[in-house]
């Protein structure tokens, strides 16, 4: 796996961090969640940019969004901010399959 793919995967993980921190910041009224949001957002964008240096933009963006979306949704279900239903979990599994498929054909 190339450095570009590793950077892209890590930046997808950081997308989930900044999305969760953004929610926790309560409209940027709480200091530490806001600081975590800003740091993880910048690092996530840098990783996405590195990934796009070798991976086609459509694939890179879809993988980045997919990782972030699945992890953010899963965290929300784990922390009981969203309901975990069989259909939601199945749809997230389908999204994971699509991200893995994009990696496989790239």
TrEMBL record:
<dbReference type="InterPro" id="IPR037185">
    <property type="entry name" value="EmrE-like"/>
</dbReference>
<feature type="transmembrane region" description="Helical">
    <location>
        <begin position="35"/>
        <end position="52"/>
    </location>
</feature>
<dbReference type="InterPro" id="IPR000390">
    <property type="entry name" value="Small_drug/metabolite_transptr"/>
</dbReference>
<keyword id="KW-0472">Membrane</keyword>
<keyword id="KW-0813">Transport</keyword>
<keyword id="KW-0812">Transmembrane</keyword>
<keyword id="KW-1003">Cell membrane</keyword>
<keyword id="KW-1133">Transmembrane helix</keyword>
<protein>
    <submittedName>
        <fullName>Quaternary ammonium compound-resistance protein SugE</fullName>
    </submittedName>
</protein>
<dbReference type="Pfam" id="PF00893">
    <property type="entry name" value="Multi_Drug_Res"/>
</dbReference>
<comment type="similarity">
    <text>Belongs to the drug/metabolite transporter (DMT) superfamily. Small multidrug resistance (SMR) (TC 2.A.7.1) family.</text>
</comment>
<dbReference type="InterPro" id="IPR045324">
    <property type="entry name" value="Small_multidrug_res"/>
</dbReference>
<feature type="transmembrane region" description="Helical">
    <location>
        <begin position="84"/>
        <end position="105"/>
    </location>
</feature>
<dbReference type="GO" id="GO:0022857">
    <property type="term" value="F:transmembrane transporter activity"/>
</dbReference>
<feature type="transmembrane region" description="Helical">
    <location>
        <begin position="59"/>
        <end position="78"/>
    </location>
</feature>
<dbReference type="GO" id="GO:0005886">
    <property type="term" value="C:plasma membrane"/>
</dbReference>
């Amino acid at each position: 796996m190339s450095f570009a793919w590793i950077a892209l995967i890590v930046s997808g993980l950081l997308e989930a961090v900044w999305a969760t921190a953004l929610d926790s910041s309560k409209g940027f009224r709480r200091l530490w969640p806001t600081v975590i949001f800003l740091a993880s957002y910048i690092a996530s964008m840098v990783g996405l940019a590195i990934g796009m240096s070798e991976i086609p933009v459509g694939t890179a963006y879809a993988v980045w969004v997919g990782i972030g979306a699945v992890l953010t949704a899963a965290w929300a279900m784990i922390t009981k901010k969203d309901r975990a239903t069989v259909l939601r979990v199945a749809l997230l599994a389908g999204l994971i399959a699509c991200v893995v498929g994009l990696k496989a054909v790239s």
